[in-house]
Amino acid sequence: MTEQNNGKPVLLTMKGLRIEGRSDETWSEIVHGIDLTLHKGEVLGLIGESGAGKSTVGLAAMGFTRDGCRISGGEIVFDGIDLMKASEATKRDLRGKRIAYVAQSAAASFNPAHKLMDQYCEAPVQHGVMGRNEAESDAVDLYRRMQLPEPDVIGFRYPHQVSGGQLQRAMTAMAMACRPDLIIFDEPTTALDVTTQIEVLAAIRNIVEQFDTAAIYITHDLAVVAQMADRIKVLLKGDEVEEADTRSMLSAPKEDYTKSLWAVRSHARAEQPPVAADKTPVVSVKNITAGYGAVDVLMNVNFDIHERRTVAVVGESGSGKSTTARVITGLLPPRQGEILFDGKVLPPDYRRRTRDQLRQAQMIYQMADTALNPKLRIRELIGRPAQMYLGLQGKALTDRIRNLLDLIELEPDDYIDRLPAELSGGQKQRIGIARALAAEPKFIICDEVTSALDQLVAEGILKLLDKLQTEFDLAYMFITHDLATVKAIADEVVVMKEGRVVEQGPKSEMFQPPHDPYTELLLSSVPEMDPDWLTDLLRERESG
Amino acid sequence: MGFLTGLFWFVVVIAGCMAAGWLFRTIAIAVTPKGVKKELRTAPLTASFGMLMIIIYIFVAIFAPLIAPFPERMVVGPEYMPWDQVHLLGTDNLGRDMLSRLIFGARNTVGIAFATTALAFLIGSILGLLAATVGGWLDQVLSRAVDVLMAIPALIFSLLLLTIFGTSVITLILVIAVIDSTRVFRLARSVALNIVVMDYIEAAKLRGEGLWRLITREILPNAMAPLVAEFGLRFCFVFLAISALSFLGLGLQPPMADWGSMVKENATLIAFGDITPLLPAVAIALLTVSVNFVVDWQLHRASGLKE
Lengths: 544, 307
Fold this sequence. Notes:
Largest interface: A-B, 26 and 19 residues
CATH class of chain B: Mainly Alpha
Helix content of chain B: over 70%
Largest sheet of chain A: 6 strands, mixed
Number of strands of chain B: 0
Order of helices and strands of chain B: HHHHHHHHHHHH
Oligomer: heterodimer
Shape of chain B: globular
Radius of gyration of chain A: 25 Å
CATH architecture of the largest domain in chain A: 3-Layer(aba) Sandwich
Distance between the termini of chain B: 39 Å
CATH topology of the largest domain in chain A: Rossmann fold
Number of strands of chain A: 20
Number of domains of chain A: 2
């Protein structure tokens, strides 16, 4: 282990930590002996795919396990207190006071029935650190340091009255309330847009430095951890892969697995020749204005999608990306404008479209979990469109299903009779792709298809989509908020903000200046692997 | 001393029931196919005992004419005979064999309750799923109609309807089924409302699936678990409702054997310290408890509750 403690005392040690999880009435080990040392004021980044045991290890630092888990071996010592042997009362006294936890979804972790201030004051008052009045003035101070707007009054709002990024900062302030020695951040920015993420990252880093708090920062985003952590530990399936200080880890990873994580963002689609000017686009969005109720969510949106081309629609949440998809599929008939398919106008409501029109445009969803009926087997899930649109029956249908499974690189014999619950996240997404392909469409809408997946898995999905596009001459509309994905897959980019198209054009132009100011903000907000990136960016924005 | 003896027998009976449940589960696991086997292993002893009792009731109901020593309606001796070798549970107020009537009662009461519950579920779940899927004015019309029906207390309402339409077995089934289907409607609708917002329903709609297929293949399989659990509970309520109506004289009509009316007809014996009239009530209670044991187990599994 690297000893870079700058003479600071050790705060937390874990030795040979083993944790077991329960499934189907039996216990199986999910964390296989992790060693971890954290010094006072140090930030340790824990990274790995989902299922690597990051959160489990993070929670174990508080001597806590989720329901259905138990610590089966090893030791956890926090500042001289053995958490394995400590009584519940001792641990309860530590939690919130000396060790705090910031969860991934602040929106789900705040109690919606109480004001922010009341929730803030609960811990310090309960632990007897300070009185109610003192806690309130302290909260305002911390809100100010977290750069929350109107720090004097924001505490008197309810959680639903502030934005997601603000809520995440309010939660970090809350974790700071008792000035803990250790804070565990569990993917605090994963649910946020890139532009909001920057603010939260800057605020977290700032406050951790100010109070010299030690932190365990859990994330699957390497670029983020590069900004935040002094040291990085890579986990894989409950085992440690390697650990080093941030700079040497980034510049010279030792293990193959770490290298593969680093290389993930390398996939890039080959430059396509420009489309002939007289060619009819597959899908043409013409002057669309649409909305829910009296509110217009989309205003005068125009763009074309050509055969064998991918148009990436980029923007923050609420920018109207998904609404555009709903208009194209006919789920939301527009107030004005029309959708052309192969030069012909499509009926605005999907119920009025012919079966063939429905077949031509397919959709792949963000959450494969909710997009596949959990009670149907793969055979029916991907066989149904083929049966319905192409009239395949019996052997021909089975052959088609097997062929589709081959296309998405899943072994037909093994998978054809499985239920969605028996698949991993990436495999489910592949089934979603196969279902879209089964209809033999010309156009597929991909709605954030990789944002719920780990980077390695997402990479596989992007490559697959790319391969299928060339094979079947597909046109893609790719909705995403992740600019790395755009770089990997797009031919053309449409940037949306508040229901309007801010900028559109070929990818090569999009990533070159000059930009629309919003595109500029979006591009500059994507974290880079350089550990100095955030510092430099903040300095630049300050001076600019 | 009496208390201790009572306690002793109570413990013996409970232990006996659990042993029976354990034995049943062991045998069932040994003889059933693989898929069922795995589920049975998760069954607690209470649920195993419940399943055993339900199977016994079904067996008795089906083979009633073969098991019963005397016919259902034949007068075989003087009224209110005590328990003896020939008439194991004595005779009733008209001199009919009590045990035989108890056995035939299983067939009538359980059979009718089952038919009624099935009908209530057919009506209630189809309309409920339809209301949730189609939405709009259809949902409004159906839901408000159900609200109106539910505003009237069920027992009073069924008494009223039975007085109007007469008390044949068919009307009894129809009236209770319609009244109970309102409760099923509410459950089916609320379960389906959570399902119709899922992406896979949107995908199916965009695929151009018809309403019937949408309901039967996409929604119903996902709504099955709560509906099955509710079926068990509903069955008990219907069962009790029929017995209550029979006790009040508006359910199954004499001379048909029915547990509810059997309690009423022989109620005078209770004054003499004879427990015979309570036996039909025990039969009702045992089946109700058994069904609930099984339903609890299924609910626990479906909801994924741990510990």
